[in-house]
Amino acid sequence: MISDDLVAWFNERWFDDMGAIDGKDVAFLSQMIATAKPRVVVEIGCASGMSTCILAALMSEQGGGELHSFDVAQRYYVDTTKPVGYLVAEAPPHPGVEITVHRGKTCIDVGDHLTGQIDLCFIDAAHRHPWPLIDTLGVLPLMKPGGIIVHHDLKMFQSTQIDAYATGPKHVLDQAPPVTRVYPDAEAQAEGGRLMKSRKINQNIFALRVPDNKAAFGAKLADGFYLGWDKQSYRLVPLDFADRFRDFLTKNHTPWVVASFAEGMRRYSPPEPATPVAAPLRRPGLGRRLVNRLTGR
Ligand SMILES: C[S@@+](CC[C@H](N)C(=O)[O-])C[C@H]1O[C@@H](n2cnc3c(N)ncnc32)[C@H](O)[C@@H]1O
Fold this sequence. Notes:
CATH class: Alpha Beta
Bound molecules: S-adenosylmethionine
Radius of gyration: 21 Å
Oligomer: single chain
CATH superfamily: Vaccinia Virus protein VP39
Distance between the termini: 61 Å
Structural class: alpha/beta
Number of domains: 1
Largest sheet: 7 strands, mixed
C-alpha cells in the first residue's frame, strides 16, 4: 500500500532523465517490502537517493529497520554539483528507519558496514553484464536464506539507443533457477503507473528469493560469467577491482565461482596489450591496398 503522501512526494520530484526507479517500480518494491517486512535493507546504486527515500518510507510502514545505500561515486552523475544521495535530506517521513549513504563503495564493501544478515537487497548500479552478477554474488554471502534480491532495469537488454543496451539484469534472471524468480504483478504495475509518474516500459524489475543453499545458488548464477560480456570501449572490469573481487570470491564462494569469474575475465576483459602492434615498415602497394579494402583487412 503506497500512501497518498508518498505518491505526492514522488510525483513532485521525479523526472524521466533522473536515472531513478519509476512509479511501476515503486509498486513492485512496495509489494516486496509488504511481504518480506525486511529489517535490514541494502541498496547498491544510490544516485540521487530517490529509490533510497522510497525504500525508507515503505520500510517505515512495515515496522522500520536499517537501510544502507552504497554507491561507487561521490557525486550524482546526472548533476555533479550534488552529492550522491542528496534527496535523502528531503526524504518523506520514515520513522523507525535509519538511513546511511555509503559513497565511494561497492558491493564488496557491504560486509564492513553491517552487523546482521540482509533481508532485502535492491541492486540498481551498473547494468552492463557482468556487473549485476558481480553485485549479486557480492551480497549473496550476507543475504538471509529466504531473503529477497531485487534487480532494476531488466529491459535494458532491449534498448535500441546507440550503445545504451545492457544485458546484465537479464543474464542474472536467466541463470537463476525458475523457482527463485519473482515477477511483478501486472495489475499492480498498471496501478503504480496510474498513480505515479512512470516510463512507458513495463515489467522492468524482478526479484530473486534466496534459497537455503546459497553456495549452490551462487554457483548456478556464476555460469553467467561464461556468457559474452557487454561491449565497452574501456576495460569492462578494472584490474584493481577484479583482484579484490577474486579475493572476495575465494573467501566467500565455491571454487566453481572463482573459476567462472577468472574465465570470463580471460575471455571478455583481457589486459590491454603491453606494446602496440608493430606498424608495417613499408606501406603496401596500391594492388595490395585494394585487395585489403575489398577483403575488409
Ligand atoms: C541508475 S543509478 C541508481 C538509481 C537509484 N537506484 C534510483 O532509483 O534512484 C546507478 C548508480 O549506480 C552507481 N554505480 C555504478 N557502478 C557501481 C558499482 N559497481 N557499485 C556501486 N555503485 C555503482 C552509479 O554511480 C549511479 O549513481
